[in-house]
Amino acid sequence: MFSLTNAQSLIGIVAILALCWLLSENRSRFPWKMALGALVMQAVLVAALFGLPWLRTGLSGVGVVVEGLASSTQAGVAFVFGFLAGTPAQPYAVTEAGGLFIFAFRVLPVILVVCALAALLWHWRILKWITQVFGVVFERTMGLRGAPALATATTVFMGQVEGPIFIRAYLPGLSRSELFLLIAVGMSCVSGSTMVAYATILAGVLPNAAAHVLTASIISAPAGVMLARVLIPRNPLVEKPENLDLSAGKTYESSVDALIKGTTDGLQIVLNVGATLIVFVSLVAMVNGALGLFPDINGAPPSVERALGLLFAPLAWAMGVSWADAPTAGSLLGVKLVLTEFTAFIRMAALPESGFDDRSRVIMTYALCGFANVASVGINVAGYSVLVPERRGEIMGMVWKAMLSGFLATCLTGAVVGLMPAALFGGQ
Q: Does residue 205 contact residue 349 with C-beta atoms inside 8 Å?
């Protein structure tokens, strides 16, 4: 049943679209048809994936696959690191089971294994076929040219910099709007490897976590495309049809070569994620330490998290989160923006069940599932500087706006999910 609680999410949708229109480089060219089409597409995808029994069964199977990946990965981690992997055979008495969950040994290795599997599936042409199908969908439904459509589809599964690699030869000739779109969509989605990692983090607090995370990344892509087109409208004089040649894409000599190179690429991602978390969490701790020198406010010391909670609480409420949960949800949005979505998911998983209702947890899962954060700004600048160095200055001028677009795209996705009846998610 549609209720006032669902209608609350309409405020968020309207507010996000209005904000992007105000920041647009050409307000007279608002893509009304694309905006309506993207919202309808998101709602239909959510309704189909969670409402149609056979698709819902398929999504439930995703959870089984994720659990299998996680347990298989732990076997490899235990072989290398022993009891640090959280195996039952501990050399000391375990008084707190939660203490066995060590991020470096339970989450980061999953990214490594999934990257290797992704390379293998690409070599076997399975992932390439899936990507091309999604590329055709984006081309037909959202009016993208072949190259940006393929890169957008690849980004959903491979990541924010990995996706554009497959159209590297076309990057210099893309319009300003298309280049911005690729960066923005990259920040509004996540890669396949991190999807599994997020599902692993949320498995204990969110039923069907893998299905929600997978759905979140897929349906945020249309939102990312649409908001990017609002902020920097397309240029029909430049964006003309082109013949697409994929021969320059990633190739591997054999299945073993794919596994080795996939592992190497995964190691780079693991190191980047781990190092980024250490640095940014440390910096926030430094700021909180300085803020702790000031007097308490309402019985608690001032902190970055509290400030972000106040700043983003209205946005969280507009997405459909209850007002009681809005400060906590707002803090999670701020943490995602400043400290990466990994930290936000870890903190959400640590929230007591009584302190965050089920509806808020589902909405925030979708709102947090994207790469839009300060660290990604640096990742994109570095990545695109290598892929298309002649346009580095142009990228520097739009990357922060792209981060805003990606951040708002995931919030828009959360608001669309807030419009849906809770029964659709089986009580979640």
A: yes
